[in-house]
Amino acid sequence: MTDTAVQPAIAEEDLLRADLYDFLSALLAGPADKGLLERTAGLAGDESDLGQAVSTLARVARATNVKAVESEFNALFIGLGRGELMPFASYYLTGFLNEKPLASLRADMAGLRITRAPNVYEPEDNIASLMEMMSGMIRGRFGAAVPVGRQKDFFFRHIAPWAEHFFSDLEAAQNSVLYAPVGTVGKAFMAIETQAFRMGAE
Prior knowledge:
10 helices, disordered N terminus, TorD-like, mainly alpha
């Protein structure tokens, strides 16, 4: 027999939110491969701040290549010893890695039944993982879709205190070319999420 229970349909605007979280996660988890770069180059935005940032990102993506993006990613996030930026909540909030923000995140992950993938070795409070977690909560990847109120709590505990600052730093980083408009997209999206959660999510 098959299970006939069907989860409630996810609203279109929430699927769009999840798509953008997934997109940012993919760009920030590692250097974009050819497929991701081509998808990025094919994007089109509207006249909003976020839409204009997406259009700029697509334009820059069309003018670059995989090798250049790999070099840029390494300079920004890996470097010799460390990259230009440290994309971790603990570092942004305390100045050190593996501090209380990471312990708090791990406790909330356990409550949501979110586990780290076995092939991931970086601390869970890196920006790419947090973007992926938000998408997973919206889509129901960790079981049922997480109610908006709980998404809000997670966002304000683990993302809002530092992510917009990180994306601003990415936008202005010395080594950012493709990643400058990624920073602009991320900053605009974090502002939209912050406002939407404050206005509507209980």
